[in-house]
Amino acid sequence: MPPKAAPSAETAELIELFKSIGLTQSKAAEAAKSAKSASTLKDIIQKNGLVEKNLEEKQAVLLATLAVQGSKLEDAERAYAVGAILDNRLKSTDQVSAAVKYLEAHPLPIDQPDFDKQCGVGFTITPSEIAAQVSNYLTSAAVTGWANLGVVIGGLKTSPELRWASPLDVKNAVEAAFTEKFGAKEAAKPKGKEPKKETAKASKPSAASEASNASASSSRNVFTEGFLGHLHKVGGNPQIHPHLREEHLKATGGLVHTRFPPEPNGFLHIGHSKAIFVNFGYAAHNGGRCYLRFDDTNPEAEEGRYFESILETVRWLGYEPWKITYSSDYFDKLYELAIDLIKRDKGYVCHCTGDEIFANRGGEERGPRKACAHRTRPVSESLAEFEKMRTGHYKPGEAILRMKQDLESGNTMMWDLVAYRVLNAPHHRTHDKWKIYPTYDFTHCLCDSFETYHAFVMYNGIHRLAGVI
């Protein structure tokens, strides 16, 4: 494949400008592709003095969205939307889209209370309030059964009362109401037609049909051969401490438990279908259970539409989660484990910049690795610094919690990975409770152990050691 052509000097300048407001290299390059929207974004940056604002990446992404969708707005209208993004009234691309439509239809000066209402600013709703809205809708509409599920969900999501509610919460509330009113979904499925009885005397099967039948009866099954066929039975793997196996069998009831743990920061792609098939399919083949666990540890990138889309995709592929869980269900437990990690002198708070960490790991020359200045700080000091992280004393990038691993290992996943970082972003479930969030590398294997097992595909093999340390 020939190398990609370098961007023109003008495009390269735009990319650097877009990166200066917080966009990543890839997102800045994407924003520079369209001459029209790139020109609008450049205009927004320059006229609103955004280079000096020290924006978060999520805000920069929303500004890029505004540039694409708000190209027809006047400068003053765009400035109003920019202000709403900077003061965190607009927090999602959906809200930015609504803001653009509102500003196109309403001349200045803007009625802020009405703007906030139409754009979902500060919207909150409890699960019981969602359930009440669903109940009222089912009472007033001619809903006859599960066949109306899609229509009901669509109608509720466009209603003024639930326009800004979490799509996944609405879907779950509707399905709970349907189950209560119409019974379980599976029981409501129409029965297939009875096969016609043969009246004529069956002719003698040919050799070809006999071979075909023999082939069908001995058809191969992906779950009984290859690496899946060699997986041990529940409780069948040797344990140094036998009581752990007994506890495991008691917790699982002897059933296979698997999980599909996507990150809700984008739509699933074709590669995810393998993970869905293996996890849900293997559990079903063995009469077990499969969790759908949303790995929601990055609130800056997560949106309600991704939660809904992921669940719809799993169901479109023909599977139903045994339970839907979230990594955020375990935030308290993960925090306690992080404290324990520090107390065991296996974790430390680090203040190195990204460039310093890269240099300590060998840099561009891939030279010898060295410990940072904070690795040997006293346990009491790291505990105090971690508490400062938790209470919001530090801004993003100023402090991280790292795991003490093995800097001499050839495996990059052993080079003192980050366990916790500071993020000034509200979470869709825990809201403003946390200023620190666990990383994927710290969270994933622990949540696996809480619910099932830690599993990975071989192209993630370098993660193996990090997952068991």
How would you sum up this structure, described in words?
With 469 residues, this protein is an alpha/beta fold. It has three domains: 9-118, Glutaminyl-tRNA synthetase, non-specific RNA binding region part 1, domain 1 (Helicase, Ruva Protein, domain 3, Orthogonal Bundle); 127-186; 255-469, 3-Layer(aba) Sandwich (Rossmann fold), CATH 3.40.50.620. The chain has 21 helices and seven strands. Strands 4-5-6-7 form a four-stranded antiparallel beta sheet. The longest helix has 16 residues, at 167-182. The protein is globular, with a radius of gyration of 27 Å.
Summarize the structure.
This is Glutaminyl-tRNA synthetase. GO terms for molecular function: ATP binding; glutamine-tRNA ligase activity. With 469 residues, the chain is α/β, with parallel strands linked by helices.
Strand content: 5-15%
**Terminal CA distance:** 40 Å
Order of helices and strands: HHHHHHHHHHHHHHEHEHEHEHHEEEHH
The overall average pLDDT, rounded, is 85
CATH homology superfamily of the largest domain:
HUPs
Largest sheet: 4 strands, antiparallel
Which overall shape is indicated by the principal axes computed on the Cα atoms?
globular
Structural features:
3-stranded parallel β-sheet, disordered C terminus, 4-stranded antiparallel β-sheet, Rossmann fold, alpha/beta, 21 helices, 469 residues
